[in-house]
Amino acid sequence: MQDNPVAPLHWRILLLLLLPPLLWAGNFIAGRAINAAVPPVTLSLIRWSIAFLCLLPFALKPFLRDRVHYYAYRWHIFGTAITGVAAFNLLVYWGLHTTSATNGIILNSFIPFLVAIFGFLFYRQTLASSQLTGLLVSLTGVLVVVSHGDLQVLLTLAFAEGDVIIFLAMVFWALYTLWVKEIPAAINRTGLMLCQVMIALIFLLPLYLWESQTTIVHLENPHTLWILAYIGIFPSVIALLAYSKAVTLIGSVRASVFIHAMPIFGSVLSTLLLRETFHLYQLLGMLTIFTGIWLANRTH
């Protein structure tokens, strides 16, 4: 499998790359906000049910047109549906019950490295020195943001059960990133996503029936319903389609490094929505992250 290390970044591709981390940062905030009201499997099932209904009017035609090609890539389609659609978010929601947001963001930042490592081990992808440098620089920026600019915060982090769960989610996302690249760009991404979501819902349904025996869902609050609508539409449909298209256009490693922008958008959203104070360390971290992203995407 070949990556695309030298394809230039046009503004449309840049938008595709920045939109997913923005919407996924909102997903982390939204998921934490309704953690107590909606358990992990139920949240995942509702999320992808909403996504399915939103996709259906637009995706049914390309799905029916391309379905004859799905069998040739059945294992990649099944694998991406389970890893990137069903398991990733289920494990994140589950892990956030027993770990901090700071730990979750740090673990999330290992995705580009996992993509690079798995790409080398399983697909013999090469990693340009500028890409490796960019990954390390952007990771440094992430650590500046999540540690509030204090090295002692990183040195005193304690890892819990939730950290192991979230790290497993990151492994799944890295595999999703590599496998979605294997599905030809000629197969329409909207129809493909409809197929992936259907597979994910079939996978989640028995888990939901098991979870419903021991947990209670609280949907009586309109605020919870609005959050579910956001989770089901923006980080699910729009972000995943944009990310899948970006991976197809510029390659898995270069696309995955933009995930490091999540703590930037998380800080901005926290400032705007939660009225939290914006600090100098956040600005320094943002500049460092964007420097790393620029280095990883240099075309010469």
TrEMBL record:
Superkingdom of origin organism: Bacteria
Membrane topology field: Multi-pass membrane protein
Principal localisation: membrane
Domain (EamA) ranges: 13-146, 162-297
Spans through the membrane: 46-64, 76-96, 102-123, 135-158, 164-180, 192-210, 225-243, 255-274, 280-297
InterPro entries: AA-Vitamin_Transporters, EamA_dom, EmrE-like
Subcellular compartments: Cell membrane
UniProt keyword annotations, A-Z: Cell membrane, Membrane, Transmembrane, Transmembrane helix
One Pfam family from the record: EamA
Record's protein name: DMT family transporter
Species per Swiss-Prot/TrEMBL record: Methylophilus flavus
